[in-house]
Structures are given as C-alpha cells and as structure tokens.
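ARCHIVE CARD
Drawer: 12
Card no.: 0347
Subject: one protein chain, sequence and derived structure
Cross-reference: see card 0346
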Amino acid sequence: MNKKTTDNLMGSETVLVEEKISPTQNGAKPLRVGDIIEGTVIGRGRSSIFLDLDPQGTGIIFGKEFYDSREELKSLEKGDKVFAKVTDMENEKGYIELSMSDASKELAWDKLKEKKDGSELLTVKITGANKGGLMGKVAGVAAFLPVSQLEASHYPRVEDGDFSKILKELQKFVGKEMEVKIFDLSQKENKLILSEKIKGKEKMKEVLGKYKVGDVVDGEITAVTDFGAFMKFGEDGLEGLIHISELDWQLIENPTKIVKTGQKVTAKIIEISNNRVSLSLKALKKDPWIEIEKEHKKGDKVKGEIVKINPFGAFIQITSEIRGLCHVSEFGTREKMTEALKEGKSYNFEILEIKPAEHRISLKLAE
C-alpha cells in the first residue's frame, strides 16, 4: 500500500494518508450513496478528516459535514473507528465523501426503533413546553411528549381550561428529567412521540385487577377542571375521573359548585377501560327521574323557568334536578318561540310525554 501526500481540500496544509484501492477494485462490494459504513481514522487536516474504509477506499469528511460534526470529530485520534454515511462515491481528489452527522441520525433512528420495539424505559430531560405538551431530545433526536400522554399526577388540571394557565403548569417541568417510553416514531416525518403514562401500564393493569365495575370507593378530590373532577382512592393511590355529567343529576355548568379540591367523597366505579377508571357520584344518589313518573303524567300542568333557549327549543327547569324541553315545533318558528318565551322567566307548561329511562320530558306552553 503506497503512501500519498495530498493537499487538504479545505486548506493549504498537507496530510499524509495511505492510498487505498478504488471501491470497484479487488472484487470489493461496491458502495452506494446512502450506505452507512464504518471507517478508521488515518489522518486529519485543519478542517477535514480521512477514514480508511478498507477494502472500499479512502473516505473524507470535510466542508459542511466537518463543520456539522466538529464537536465529535475534534476528539477523534488516529486509529479510532466511526460510522459515516456515503454522500458522494468519488470526488475530484478520488476520495469517497462522507457525512458523520447523517450517519449518526440514521443510527439514532435505528436505535430508537429498537427501544420502541423492546418497550424500553427512557429518561428524557425536558427542554421546552408549549400548550400541547413538553419537548426534549432522545439520542439527539427532537422529541415531543403530548399533554395527553402525561401521567395523571402530571396532567395540568386547569379549572377553566385556559391555555395560558396550562402552559404555565407545563413550564414547571422544563429542566427536569422524566421517565418515558416511545409512543410513536417516523424517521421520514422526523417525528418522535413520547409517552409517560404507558410506562406504568403493566403495573396499572395489576392494580386495577383489584377493582371491578360497581365497586364503591372512598377517596379525595385532587383537582377540579371544566370537564369534571379527579379523585384519588385506594391504597395504591389510583386516580379516576368523575366526568361533569356524573357529578350530579342536575345539569352542571361549573363543577366547582359541586365538589372542591381536598373534599372527601364516596363514588361508584362505572367503567374500567384502557387503564383508566371512570367514577360517578350521581350513581350513588337517588335518581329523581324515577319519582317524576309517579308524581306527573301526560297532560299535567307544571310550572317551570326558562334556563336556556336554543335553535331547536327551550330548556325548562321544573325541579332543581329535572329539566324538560319545549321543542321549537310547538311554536312554528324560532322567532315565534323567542317572542313567547324569555330566559329567566317562569311559565305554565303542559306535559306531552315523560320517558324516565331516557331522562326526557317533553313540554308545550299551556293555553
């Protein structure tokens, strides 16, 4: 093997490297642009580095590729082995042009796929936040942890759903490390999605096995949001959601009027699905619709207050827990309905139909 002295492509200094055979000589398998290949450092210049790609020839990392990987390249010494990606089969000097940064990215994606397939637990440092979730890097690849993939204890419980308040809560995690698993990835789309909540799926499945639908549990309200309340219960500190529709039989506009954070409550488990528990307070309260059919029948007159007027009709509060509907068809047009009824005022109505099982009562304005 002959010695060859060549001008550095990025400067005037000379670098001594070993002259290698061409990629097509000696029966060696031809390289292609895009291949990842391992090479040994055999020489370097001020802004270039040469790799022995035995038996394929000699490769060079220079120009933008050298600049992009300068931090990794500056610590390399003769004899060190590195992976690089072929970007040009043969330049004007006869070298195979290489990119170390491109190879690192491809190898990183391969490693990430292995970690996802193996359901491996990762540690990620949170570097930023937006209203949709948290940001970080895994193996040098930008990653995103959506709000929906946070553990219940880390979920931003903002009562009014205000995005600025959600962002403020999420920013508390910046600079901290979190244990996650890879939820989804696509090298083509440069997408790496993480999940914090799926890391505990197996443990959660085991804990949930102690409970069944219909169980009554005691617990504490840990947060109240615009869509309901979170309740912690059991020795394992499980947390379930009481949806706004399950807080009480009456129609609720603001959950904070029913429960408060820190309040001790008793709830019924109404669903266990996808490692989530749904709870209900109203399931333990007497259903007011059972009594309504005993007290009233079709044709009876009742008095009620107009609480809301929609294009399809008006909602009438008959009792604190029962609302009926007077359909717009009873007036002919929406204009006639809004002329006859005003929100906040009470009127006499006639019952057209009662369906307790469907929690529905139809009314018309009494003559």
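Annotation on reverse: The chain has a mean pLDDT of 82. Helices lie at 63-68, 70-73, 100-117, 163-170, 201-208, 288-295, 334-340.
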